Amino acid sequence: MTGLDAFYGDFQALYGLDLHLDAGEVLAIIGANGAGKTTLLRSIAGLIRNRPEAIRFRGSPVGALRADQVAGLGIALVPEGRQLFPSLSVEENLIIGGRVGRKGPWSLDAVYRLFPILKERRNQASTSLSGGQQQMVAIGRALMANPDLILFDEISLGLAPIIIRDIYAALPGIVGDGMSAILVEQDISKALSVSSRVYCLQEGRVSLEGASDALLREAISRAYFGIA
Amino acid sequence: MDWLNAIVQGTLLGGLYALFAAGLSLIFGVMRLVNIAHGDLIVLAAYLGLSTSIALGMHPLLVLVAVVPAMAGMGYVLQRGVLNRTLGDDILPPLLVTFGLSVIVQNALLEIYTADPRKMDAGGLETASVDLGGLTLGVLPVLTFAVAVGVIAGLQWVFYRTALGRAFRAVSDNQDIAQIMGLNKAHVFGLAMALSLAVVAVAGIFLGIRTSFDPSIGGGRLIFGFEAVIIGGLGNLWGTLAGGVILGVAQTVGAAIDPGWQLLAGHLVFLLILAIRPNGLFPRMDG
Prior knowledge:
The structure holds two protein chains of two kinds.
Chain A: E1 4-6, E2 19-21, E3 26-31, H1 37-45, E4 55-57, E5 60-61, H2 67-72, E6 75-78, H3 90-97, H4 108-114, H5 116-120, H6 131-143, E7 149-153, H7 161-175, E8 180-184, H8 188-194, E9 197-202, E10 205-211, H9 217-225
Parallel strand pairs in A: 3-8, 3-9, 6-7, 7-8
Antiparallel strand pairs in A: 1-2, 1-4, 4-5, 9-10
Chain B: H1 2-31, H2 38-56, H3 64-86, H4 92-113, E1 129-132, E2 135-138, H5 139-161, H6 163-173, H7 175-180, H8 185-210, H9 218-232, H10 237-257, H11 262-276
Antiparallel strand pairs in B: 1-2
Helix pairs in contact in B: 1-5, 1-8, 1-9, 1-10, 2-3, 2-4, 2-8, 2-9, 3-8, 5-6, 5-8, 6-8, 9-10, 9-11, 10-11
């Protein structure tokens, strides 16, 4: 992957957004509600179609591709609110994540090694799990595609702090081997702790950009809330 | 014995209704599409069977090997070419388009085959029967019922035991997220319609062997199919079989009371169940 430029013309929730990501990098996107974070991820994943050149992945234009085509290129999304398939068992949810058939380290066994509890619950309906376990399934489902780029949308939303800590503890092991990640998060400190660079969105525009460990708190809250 | 006879014959008739209904149930379950042309497609399949059977001099049951794939292929093309464009948040366009399709199929059949009733010759299978201590069972109704059970079991297996069924359920649950998993929903919908029309082909052939048919009877078959689906509960395949049986029994018991009551009794039972259990007797449990 040589990099990903995602920009978005004067259109809808995002205004000429310009950001890039290097191979193996973990990027955090922060911002208040309605800043366009989810719209950005849905655009990258192909759920919102765009001009072909609006999004480039490994140098080729992917902005106009359908979501299933984007998935085949190695971009996976862990959607906001988990959105598991209620008619499918835990294991079926994971299997369907792997149906793009890309080669890589992730398999059912690997996901079960990462989240052993899921192996015990493999045959249960995905809706019968706790929120944290459902989030594990959602992450596992995305990993099963062996993506080069994984998009996390608000993975801490609605989960107990202790579960959030566990999931964030597992993240470095997930994105450690060369996988890139974009992490959309409202929990700023969590987002900064696992990312190398951060973008702050405000009303569909980038209001701040920088290395995660170099940005000052005040700069972030200014960019976040738009206080001049 | 009369009542027992009516119930047994009604149950067997229910097999045919379940065949009418299974394809409707399937596509509604996968893509929330109500196919108004379903009945006319059943009649189309019957005519296809008739023509193939006459042209090749084959037994009507043997032409299933040609009609089933032909209808399935037509279903895929119809879905990708036409119906996928109508699916969206608004439920009206697919209704209107399939209604239009119904009119087109009916008039095309009228043009080609005229309005004369036709029937497939199954070489005595229609009238063959076995005696079971006072109960006389027609071989064809028993065969139809067995095929209906087999078709429903097969669809059930596809739905819950195969990758295709996983794709059907995933797309049914959440189209966007299924798309992110690399499933092209346009293709998945095409396959669902292909499967639906494969069942329609079976239904059409059995209909055409059992009774005479003409281009205008599609609407009635659609109603029976609908009623079976609604009675059984939307999106539940075994429920659809039960719904077909309930409808069939209601009709034969009604006819045993008074021959004029056959259809009315079926519709009344349908209305009664709709009033008491609007979601059908066996609604889908998940979700």
